[in-house]
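Much of our argument rests on the idea that a fold can be written as discrete symbols. Part of our work consisted of pairing the sequence of a single chain with a tokenised description of its backbone. We regard such an encoding as a compact summary of how the chain folds. The amino acid sequence and the backbone structure tokens for this protein are reproduced below.
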Amino acid sequence: MLNELEIPLMQLPHAVAAPLYASAGAAGADLYAALPEGDPITLDPGGFTAVPTGVAIALPDGWEGQVRPRSGLARRHGVTTLNAPGTVDWDYRGEIQVVLINHGHTPFLVERGMRIAQLVICPVARATWIETASLDETRRGADGFGSTGLGDAAKSE
């Protein structure tokens, strides 16, 4: 059973469409490039830019929007969101923009109406930080980058 949350949405004059869930099981709603008609953006390899979506939302306190990449753009073209996931805070009321980057080897054309990212709505937990002189011990301990999934034999190599 899905959790449903009503979120006020404002489509700006240059909007293409409201975010849309592509299937009944989709966690993310597609966001669309709201560029002027006939004025695409070319992302050269290594290039990045903020792309407007034409929508603004009013999230309730305690919720966030996560702007995530679309797997098809990444797989086919090497195009993804630069700050994945981008965060839309509950108190932000401006237009949602998507920072796209081209990690591919050829230029990529971003055109009006193209699905460029997905928006996932999530609850937020705020931490109360408690200063301490030590932390409890775990098997992993302080092993960092790349250490999960390695057995003890692989760690000793």
Observations:
- Residues 12 and 128 are 37 Å apart (CA to CA).
- The mean pLDDT is 93.
- The longest strand covers residues 115-123.
- Residues 9-127 form a domain with the Deoxyuridine 5'-Triphosphate Nucleotidohydrolase; Chain A fold (CATH 2.70.40.10).
